[in-house]
Every structure is written in structure tokens, then in C-alpha cells.
Amino acid sequence: MTVYAGAVFDMAVRQFGVIADHLSIPMDERERILMPKRAITISCPVHRDDGSIAVFEGYRVQHHLTLGPTKGGTRFAPCVDIGEVAALAIWMSWKCALVGLPYGGAKGGVSVDPQSLSMRELEGLSRRYMQEMIPFVGPHTDVMAPDMGTNEQVMAWFMDTYSMYQGRTVTEIVTGKPVSTGGTLGRREATGRGVAHLVRRVMKERDIAFGGATAVVQGFGNVGSQAALELYNSGVRIIAVSDHTGALHDSKGLDIPGLLRHTGTQGSLAGYSNQLSYDPAAILTLPCDVLVPAAVERVIDARVAENLKCRVLAEGANGPTTPEADLILETRQDEIFLIPDILCNSGGVVVSYFEWVQGLQQLFWEEDQVTRREYQILDRAFGQMVERAKRDGISHRTAAMTLGVEKVRSAKAKRGLFP
To answer: Name one GO molecular function term (predicted).
Structure first.
């Protein structure tokens, strides 16, 4: 029996089972590596603008603290539940280990539609969430970051709330803050830049010319929009994008800077163009060189995987591909180069690590230093993944997760079991 349930958690368990079998991990070791160390469930009462009180459920799951403090985002979304949060924390552990960061994985969230809140209500919810988490987090225990439905402003409220209770400014309690409150240059762009950097590397290795290439980006939030802009600036035609309000398609290529200006003022793609509207469910299977799923989990199922017409699949989102779809992608490795999520979108946590280090030291870097170091770490992990995949004759996802699980397993074994 477990408190964790749901399709996303089941997916994380099944993925770990594949890795554990590949590494021949004894059965009595597996639960210690997989199951989260700690899960917190809280109630967040908030005064609504109409004078009523609403109560929202919040969560935080800390997967392991073997390598250092836990690290992970906090999402505000209607679909959030403890199982999803636990799965995301587990994936974050493999991600941090893969790229060599001294962290365990964590994730948090509140079950709420942030669009239904006024700015004052959003601030009240953000501050109450952090207030309830204070006994369980800290710069050397658990460091939060933004995720779906949260942003730099929410992180600033988190940091301020924690600091008020400590009686001093503690910038390093969260990452993804505004630069003016101790954030780092390049953090907002880091995840999308990392996705585009790895895509460009694969395109060069596969002899796909930037100038004639096409890309589809599902999810036009922070990650997807930045990845789209980076690829657009490299000469790639972005022929389709989508968000929760709909999709746009133009075989000649979309005006990505124009779309960014529109979403910056309107908050979504809605209202940009009726002529370019397209079926959101169909953009994943459009013929293209690069497909970037950068929205939510489990969008590429077996049916979609069979019909993919891309040459590079770059997973900007966490868990976009189901285990059933993975089995199909393994048979299509010669056609489709997969950049798995725990590597593809790891640029965000890499630069979050840089922000944490800068906060602890109170010594801040220039943006070119941040980006250069991010790319160095991504390139190193990419090389290790490809080498392991070739050596063991396994998929890129299995190789990347194997590297992450191996590091966590080794650290747990060396530290032993207390008491």
C-alpha cells in the first residue's frame, strides 16, 4: 500500500522498474531507492476578494537527501495531486544525478487554477503555502523553484515569507527569483535554451541543416516559447505551436517574436490569428524535423508514437511519453533521435544550482558565464548518455535514467543505512 497513486506515479514506477531490471538491482534495494523520503500535505486557507475564505490543498514531496538538499519546482494547477508530485520528485532525482548536481529531487504544488485568482489572492496563497512549508524546507534542506503556474513573482513572495520568519534575507531558499531580489541572469531562459542547445547538437550530428529545418513546439509557456525563439534565431522554421487555448500552424513558418509579444500582453496564444488556427491534438504528428513537447505529462501515447513524423524528439516537458510509447520509440531509434526529458529540460535545474551557489556566496556571475557553464554540463551529460546507450545497446531514456539511478544507488550504499 502507498499514499501515492495515479497514472503519472505509476509511469515513474514502471520506468524505474526497467532501470532496476537493467542494473539487476536486488528486490530488497529497490523500494529504498524509489520511494520518497518525505511527503507533506497541507491546507492553505486564503481570503478571497469577495470576503469569503477558500481552502486549497498543497503538497511537497522530497525524494531523497543523500547527495545534498532536495531541489524542485512548485506548480499551481488544477490537476495537481500527491501522486503526480511524487513522480516529478523522483524524476528530478535522476535528473540531478545525471547532470552531476549535489541534490536530491523534490516537487511541490497546490491544486488550484491560478487564472481564477486575483493578484492579491495569488500572493496570499503563495505566502501561505511557504509559511506552512517552513518547518520542512531550507537552503540546505529543500530549495524551491518555479514550475507550471508559478513564476519569478511567486518565488519572490516565497523568499520574502521565509526571510520574515528567519529575521534576515535568505535569498538562497528559492531559485528562479527576479534578478533584483537575488536571482541569476539567464535563469528564466535556461530550460528553453538548454532544449534548443541539445537540439542543435543533434541536428549537427544528423546533418540536418538549420536553414531548411522545421520544428513543432507543443506548449508555449516559458520553456516552449524560449526553445522556439532559440531555434527560430538559428534559422529553423517553427511551423506550429500550441498552448492550453489552442494551436497555430503555418507551413511557411510562424513569427515567433510576434507570438512572444502577443503572449506577453495577452497571456496566451488566444486571439493571435483565426486563419492560422489548427487542431491542437494534431500538431504532434505533423511532418517536421524537430518536435518539442513542452506542455504536460503523457501526451505521446502509443498511437501518437506510431504516427510521429519527426527526426528529433526533444522532451521539454517532464514525462511527456508513456511507457507504451517508449516501446514503440525503441523500434524507431534509427528514424527518431530521442533527447529524454531528464536531460533535455535539465538546463533549468542546472542554472538553478548556479543561482543557489551565487546566493550562498553572494558572488554573482555574468550571463555569458551562466550560459557557457550550463552548456558545458549539458554537453558532458549528453556525451555520457550516448556512450552508455551504445555500450549497452539500450535507448537514450534507459541510458540517461541508468546513469542517474546508478549515482543515487551508489551514494546510498556508501553512506549506509542509519541507524
So the answer is: nucleotide binding
Q: Spell out the domain ranges in the chain.
A: 7-171, 188-344
Domain 7-171 has what CATH class? alpha beta
Q: Which residues are annotated as a binding site?
A: 71, 95, 191, 222, 352
Q: What is the pTM of this model?
A: 0.94
Q: How confident is the model at residue 28 (pLDDT cuts 50, 70, 90)?
A: very high
Torsion on CA atoms 92, 151, 138, 64, rounded to nearest 10: -10
Question: What is the structure's pLDDT at 1?
Answer: 63
pLDDT digits (tens, 9 = 90+) for 210-226: 998 999 999 999 999 99
**What Cα–Cα distance (Å) separates residue 199 from each residue in 63, 66, 99, 333, 352?**
29, 32, 17, 16, 21
Mean pLDDT value of segment 285-293: 96
pLDDT value of residue 418: 87
Q: Return binding residues for substrate.
A: 71, 95, 352
What is the CATH code for 188-344? 3.40.50.720
Please identify which of the residues 37, 107, 177, 309 carries the catalytic annotation.
107
SS3 326: helix
Q: What is the CA 197 to chain-centroid distance, rounded?
A: 16
Q: Which amino acid is present at 415?
A: R
Q: For residue 268, which of 236, 244, 249 has the smallest C-alpha distance?
A: 244
Q: Is 407 a catalytic residue?
A: no
